[in-house]
Amino acid sequence: MGRLSMLFWVKVLGLLPGEVGHGDAGSLLSPHRHMPLLASRRAHMLLNRVRLFSCLFSILTPLWIVVDIYTLPSPLSWQLAGLRLLATLAFVWLTRALRPDGRLLQAWRGMAMLFAIPSLFYLFSHLLLSHYSLVGVSGIISAGYTFLPFVLLAGLAIFPLTLVECLVFALPALLAHLLSGYLQWSAMVPPVFWGAFWLQVLIAGVSALACTTQLAFMMALVRQAVRDPLTGVFSRRSAEEMLELLAVQAQRSGMPLAVVFIDLDHFKSINDSFGHAAGDQTLKRLAADLGLQLRKSDILCRWGGEEFLLLLPQTTLPQARLVLRRVRRRGLGLRPDGQPLTASMGLAEWHEDEVADWPALLALADARMYQAKQQGRNRVVSGDDAVLAQTA
């Protein structure tokens, strides 16, 4: 697997020197290593393109009925018209039923249906046409039906897919061609049949290259867009997107979700006394130190200025307190004058605080951060602490 990843990286990722590294080879082979933000954005893009092509197919598919009626004999033309109407209804339903929700599973289902509908249409139309010996204009029109698998495989190229996904979604068209040959085994001409199949495999390979190249560009763009340029942690916009995704998961699965608002104490005095360059260095060191202390599942984001947002998926309120206690015990680093760097933190948890949505969770953590400042800074305020502060 390691040698395969290296070969794939050298051949394909070389198209993006300096933008996609060796560690991204696995992400182009399989979607399981994608970060949630990339998966969500890709799911939206895939479903939107599925809906676009379903809409186009729902318009173009019935228009060909007129050509079939004028060129093909009856009842073949009417049978094909019935198939086309069924396919059109399926495309219309697919266009209206799909709504992007950021889940790759739904995007995969949409793509599977998008490619299954024309594959079934090809299979049944091939069976109908096999009962007729058509020549002239009718023969030319009927021959056009055999190009449908080629169109499907070429259409894969518009989707940003991993190599594994490309192979999976190419299978319906390839299997439809093989099944059509099996059902018409006695009348099949082997050189023509296998030559067409080999050409389909080649087109699928070229489409897979186009899909993974699109994905590589998308990964590079997402990486550039989601990171704060100074500290290297996630940006505010990325934080909002990830918090929305995590909130949906917490609501659906019942898993805990904790959020921490972090505001550095007296940070303005660093900029005033030592300059903005020193302040920038302090922020960079803080982000680096926190990144080493946090768990792999924790997500650190720069909210703005000296404010940071820490997302703790699948973390209860007591567990979040332990995480913050460990972080504060190890320290947040030093100020330029050698004094310890401290912060005021507000902690909130989805289920414990019974919030309605993620903006409410964020607002609650923000309010508790301000309570920490009012109580003297360099402390954490969470649910019980906030109640005590209000009643004191």
Question: How would you describe this protein?
Answer:
With 392 residues, this protein is an alpha+beta fold. It has two domains: 2-226, no CATH class; 236-391, Alpha-Beta Plaits (2-Layer Sandwich). It contains 16 helices and five strands. The chain is elongated. The chain starts with a helix and ends with a helix. Residues 386-392 have low confidence and may be disordered.
Using only CA atoms, what is the Rg? 29 Å
How many discrete structural domains? 2
- Total helix count? 16
Helix-strand string: HHHHHHHHHHHEHHEEHEHEH
Tell me the distance between the termini: 62 Å
For the biggest β-sheet, the strand order reads 2-3-1-4-5
The amount of helix comes to: 55-70%
Task: Tell me, briefly, the overall form.
Answer: elongated
List the helices and strands and how they pair.
Blueprint: H1 2-12, H2 25-29, H3 36-63, H4 65-71, H5 76-97, H6 104-129, H7 136-144, H8 148-155, H9 163-183, H10 190-226, H11 236-253, E1 257-264, H12 267-274, H13 276-293, E2 299-304, E3 307-313, H14 317-330, E4 343-349, H15 358-374, E5 380-381, H16 383-391
Parallel strand pairs: 4-5
Antiparallel strand pairs: 1-3, 1-4, 2-3
